[in-house]
Amino acid sequence: MKKLIMLLMVAFLAFPLTQVSTIHAEGYGWGYKKNSDHKLPYIGKYESMLEQYGAYYADKTGQKNIYLTFDNGYEEGYTDDILDVLKKKKVPATFFVTGHYVKSEPELVKRMVDEGHIIGNHSYHHPDFSVISKGTIKKELEELEQAVAEVSDQDKLKYLRPPRGIFNEQTLKWSYDLGYIHVFWSLAFIDWETSKQKGWEYAFNQIMNQIHPGAIVLLHTVSSDNAEALEQLITELHKEGYAFRSLDELVLKDKLPGAIYGFE
């Protein structure tokens, strides 16, 4: 018995204590209850978690504002087209990029910044945040920020979209402690499967059917459907009284109620 106890103690002491911080509750996959009645989707228990750590998934004021966001992990040749439309229509967007994207497409990242768009942090290596330590998350975010600063004039990143939309209360807190604002979304559809594009009308209808005041829209620039639908989509939403805003305006409005927007 004494020998068994000694073996157990040795095994315990040999276990690296630094690993304790990497083991925590399983992550949640971001999701919500979709609707087609143009209302803010229901997110259930996530609501209080997001509020506690200053995270966003929509503009909840009821105003007819839209926030376009794109996730960029790799390039399929459509981002220039999307940027052309945004420039023509004078619409701001936020591009959440990974280290691979910055390294492979520095000119596109520079163009995004030069044309007034925001670069968001999607991590350097795109890991599951719920199974790594706070220190590793910090390194992921700092490496991506440094990479963006090396190829553009944006040297600080403040918006974070966790890889694969996976999070939990711990990762929300850690990111908040590191000075980041989590940004999820209230409107999305399967648009990233490059071999299963269905034509621009599919993308157009998916967005128009789900659109609601205050929507943070998640799109992927690898989609030819999105690139082809974007101009008509913006035109139609403008006709319906929607205005396209940046995430900076959303955060400013929360901090300074009644703030006046600088355009549109």
Strand content: 5-15%
Order of helices and strands: HEHEHEHHEHEEHEHEHEH
Helicity range: 40-55%
* Overall SS class: alpha/beta
Main pleated-sheet profile: 5 strands, parallel
Mean pLDDT: 89
Record field, number of beta strands: 9
Gyration radius, in Å:
20 Å
Low-confidence stretches: 1-24
Structure annotation, total helices? 10
The first-to-last residue Cα distance is 78 Å
**Which term fits the overall shape?**
globular
Structure description:
The protein is α/β, with parallel strands linked by helices. The protein contains ten helices and nine strands. It has helices spanning 2-14, 46-52, 79-89, 99-104, 106-114, 134-151, 169-177, 200-210, 224-239, 247-255, and strands at residues 28-29, 65-72, 93-97, 118-121, 159-160, 166-167, 181-182, 215-220, 243-244. The strands form three sheets. Strands 2, 3, 4, 8 and 9 form a five-stranded parallel β-sheet that branches. A two-stranded antiparallel sheet has the order 1-6. The radius of gyration is 20 Å and the shape is globular.
List the helices and strands and how they pair.
Elements: H1 2-14, E1 28-29, H2 46-52, E2 65-72, H3 79-89, E3 93-97, H4 99-104, H5 106-114, E4 118-121, H6 134-151, E5 159-160, E6 166-167, H7 169-177, E7 181-182, H8 200-210, E8 215-220, H9 224-239, E9 243-244, H10 247-255
Parallel strand pairs: 2-3, 2-8, 2-9, 3-4, 5-7
Antiparallel strand pairs: 1-6
Helix pairs in contact: 3-9, 8-9
